Structure formats: C-alpha cells, structure tokens
Amino acid sequence: MRPSWDGIRRSFIAQRERVSDALSDALATTSLGSGTRENDVNGRIQTNLDGDVGESERRDGSGTSRTRQFLRRIARRDGGNGTSTKVSEGFRARYESESETESAGTSAAERSVLATCARAELTNVGSGRVFVAMRVIGERGVARGRRVRTSCRGKTKTPVWNATRDLRCDASDRDALCVDVYLGQSVKGIEKASLIARGQISMAFAFANEGREVPVPLHTKLERAGAVGTVWIRVTRTGALQGSRKRIFFVRHGESKWNEAQRDINFASMMKFDHPLTLVGVQQSQALGERAAIACSHGRAGILVNANVSSMSPPTLSPPSSPPPSSPFRSTSPVKEHQYSAQGAELCASYEECLTCYVSPLTRTVQTSCLLLQSHPNTFIGKMRQVCLQSLREIKGVGGLDTVGIEQGDAILERARKKLAELVNDGGHSASRLSSGIAFDSNDAVGQWWTSETDSDNSQDVDERMFDFLEAIRFDEDEAVIVVGHSLFLQQLISRIVPTGDVDESLNTGSVAANLLDGFSDPFAPKDPFEAFATNSNSGDIPFVPAQAPPVVATIEPSRRRMKIFERLMSEKLCNAGCVALDVNFDDSGRATLEDAQLIFGSKFV
C-alpha cells in the first residue's frame, strides 16, 4: 500500500527535527575554542530559534484617539490589500525580546553586544533566497540573549546585508557566536526555512578584532569538513543601549516617467521597469536642493522666519533680504515669529550637518538624490555619502512594474547617469558630474534586491523592510540623515511609528475629514512651487528652475498641529521632490515612535 502524502510529510518533519536535535546536542558538547569536549556539560543549546518571541505590547485602550480611528478607517478602506497602513502585530513583535539570561552576575541590561552581518560567500544556494540568524551560546551550551536574523537576499552567491542587530546580552570571552544560514523566506520564520550551513566563532576572537569584519567558516557537517562558504561578522561591545533621537529628512523623488505616463494615461510607458526621472523631475530635484541652500543661508544669517521656503530668487543672486513687516508671511505675534525662526534655523543647521544620504536603489531616487546633494555643503568638500538600501525601495502592488529593478551594484549609478544623458542634451556634461563630490555605496543592492514582476509585497514583507530600515537609521552614527525614497513607503513607515496615544486636547476633536486641511493652506503662498520651469539655459548645466514669485518664505505647521500632519502623511502623498523632517525617538528596546514632522523647503501634499 502506497503511503499517503500526509504520512510522508509527517515522517520528513520528524526526521528533520531529529537531525536538528542531534546537531544541537553535538554543538553543546563541543568546545567553542578548539573543538575538544567540555568536561562539564549539563544542558544543550536552547532550540528556540525564533528570537522575536514575546507578546506585543498592549497599549492603553482607554479614551478615544483620533489617530486610532484614522488607522481603522484606512484599514477598512484598503480592505484585504496586503500593504494596508494598519500596523500589524508582527511588526511590533519584532521589538519584543525573550527573557535574557544573566551571566557571571552581570545583568544583560547593563551592557550589550552588537553584531553586524556584513556579507557572505556561499556555494550551495543556487537561485534560492537566504538569510542569516545569529545568537550567543554560553560555555555550557545555553543560549543567551536573543536570536536575531537578517532579511532575505536572493539570486546571488555573494549576498550583502550590512545589518546590525542587538544581541541583548553581555557576552564573555568563553562564549561563542553561532551563525546559521537558512534557505527560505525570513518573513515566514525560521521554523519554515531549511538550515543549510552553520558556523561559530569564539567571542574572545571576535572581541580581539572588535570593530573589524572577521570571517566565520560555514559547514554542513559536524566534522567541519567541506566548507560551503563564509560569513563576515563585525562585533562591537557597547553599554546598555539607551533611547536615542534621530532626525530623518525624507525626500520623495522627482517626477518620473511613470508619473508622467500615469498622468497622460499612457499604459505602454507604465509597463516598463525602473522608470527614470523626466526633465521636469530633474528640474524639481535641482530646485529642492537650491531652496534648501537658500533656507540654510537665511538660517545662518539670522533672517529666516521658518524652514518651509516656497520660493526664492535664482541661485546666481545673493540671498534676499528679510521680508518687510507688512509681509503676509510674517507672524503677527513676535513670540510666534521667534519660535518659527528658532525652529527653522535649527532644522536648517541639522540638514547642513548630514553626512549620509540613504537612497532607494531605483533609478529615479538615485537621480533625485544626486541632483539634490549637488547643493549640499558637505558635497562641496567631498564628505557626503550616498548609501543604497534595498529595504527603502517602493512598495510593490500587483502589477507595479515601476518598482522592479534592472541593475545592481555600481551599475545602478551608471544607469542613472545614462538615463540623465539621454534626457539632457548637453553632451553628457551633466551626467558625467552627476555624483561629483559624493561617495556612492551600492551597499546591499546586489543580487535581486527588488520584488519580482510576478510577486507583490504583503504586510509581512513590508513589516520586515520597515524594521530593517529603522534599524539602519537607529545604528547610524549621525543624529540626522537624508533619505530619498517613495510615497507609498513613506505612508507605510508613518503608519508603523505614529504614536497611538490620545491626541492633545488643544486639537479640534471633530471630524478628521472636516479638519484635515485646517491650518495647512497658506492663502498667500504660490499654488504650485514647481509650476514655472525654465526651458533654456545659456550654460551647459541642467536648466535651473526658480519659482517666479518674489523671494519670500511661507509658514510651517506648528507642533500643536503635528497629529494632523501625521494623518496627512498616512493618507496623502508628498509632492514630487518634496521634503519632510521626521523626528523619531527610539526607546531602549529599539522601538521607534514619531515625535514630530514638518514640511520644509517649499514642500506640500498633493
């Protein structure tokens, strides 16, 4: 009698569990330094491979929150869409850690270890997708801290992660770091993936090379014969991770060929991959950088009313003088005027200090960031870094071909140059100096970093990408960074980090729909800061696009309106080449909460 499929499946699962248990027992009885047997072994490795256990935090449900109501309304509107702005429990659970083991009388809360999975060279992955899990194993084979994992990388034998994770424990020299490589989808959990290789290094060796990448040989057999690859890990000891505050200058890309095709209902153009910028998008990106430069110069001179400069004079002219007292853009209250001026000057100073620009690897965002950064002071002195993050790419829906990439690695920048040369007829001058003064780093944009044309991003995929992005921002050395990304990504990000507490009583608690526009429209501001474009230029550079209105500045949203701007960020799109300053607070466990958001440099919603 032929066995049933269910019987074969149960037999296979049982056999895999026996092999896993045998492997754990063998590792528990193996010396972490030289491979000899330990004299005293009274426990085996804990096999709870999922380090993200623990119930999601239950927030106080008392009272009525307009933000909660708004999130529920968005969820109902999206229906069964996999990329709904509703915050999934899986995303919150990523920050929950299991109970941590104390070692040698030192609490894990007093100090911790950061492990960065940099890259790998693998020989047995084929065309599958792989991810890495790491955990500290004590000298008696007891798992410590929590198990952390990276996101998936596919269709490459040399995947790159550069992902830093907090192991949540104070490791000693007698411990080891166990590194596992799995074949499968990381969003489905380790239990549904296949362990294809395992390696370990002693923490003494890792600490001796602290801050440097060390190779971890990978093996499929306990005898450590026949290495199947290597993973490079970087370990850093740190004190107890305290809460931190980061500022993100989030920029949406300029108008792309897809935006143009959507406006013109040109389905043939919409069906292409990885659309570059249009000429309008190029001009928008340049204009944003120049408006930022004007605002920063005003801030340094002490004549800035606020940071949301909506128009300006051409960059060849000197900065305009302060608006007259009768200007409608000035606050009638000296106190409010001083408050706006201080906020705007502080934002501009923070922007000028940015040394890193994280960018989606798609062509339109790479072009936007290069054009924007041409006016940044750190580009002039050669200190600006442009770092690709595949987690920052646009959210892909069904049929969203504009999110499908074409190039990888350094070829991403070459494609951006090529498409700009095809667009701007200046003999390739603009394309050749597109990234002048900027250190381009393709980072993890290798292999198939995009979602394939036949797939789409579900809520689990988006959760993982948001977690990766926020961890990259959290462990960045600088307090402020520039991020160039996409509209749907921004909406999904805000929905996951927006505070869920009750709204300040000073806000109007009426209908959200009736009050969304309250306090955001300026009757004196130009209807569209990008409505007039220069079409010719006497120089060989890309034509610059100044607004035609006089050099004035417009109001920004005061902090008491921040919940309204949070709601608009989740429901509306930022204009092309628009910028919003996000103040994000990370607590001790790494959970991110949005504290404030302000439109700056002439940006608006569309």
UniProtKB/TrEMBL annotation:
<dbReference type="InterPro" id="IPR050275">
    <property type="entry name" value="PGM_Phosphatase"/>
</dbReference>
<feature type="region of interest" description="Disordered">
    <location>
        <begin position="32"/>
        <end position="109"/>
    </location>
</feature>
<dbReference type="InterPro" id="IPR013078">
    <property type="entry name" value="His_Pase_superF_clade-1"/>
</dbReference>
<dbReference type="GO" id="GO:0005737">
    <property type="term" value="C:cytoplasm"/>
</dbReference>
<feature type="region of interest" description="Disordered">
    <location>
        <begin position="312"/>
        <end position="336"/>
    </location>
</feature>
<dbReference type="GO" id="GO:0016791">
    <property type="term" value="F:phosphatase activity"/>
</dbReference>
<feature type="compositionally biased region" description="Pro residues">
    <location>
        <begin position="316"/>
        <end position="327"/>
    </location>
</feature>
<dbReference type="InterPro" id="IPR029033">
    <property type="entry name" value="His_PPase_superfam"/>
</dbReference>
<comment type="similarity">
    <text>Belongs to the phosphoglycerate mutase family.</text>
</comment>
<protein>
    <submittedName>
        <fullName>Histidine phosphatase superfamily, clade-1</fullName>
    </submittedName>
</protein>
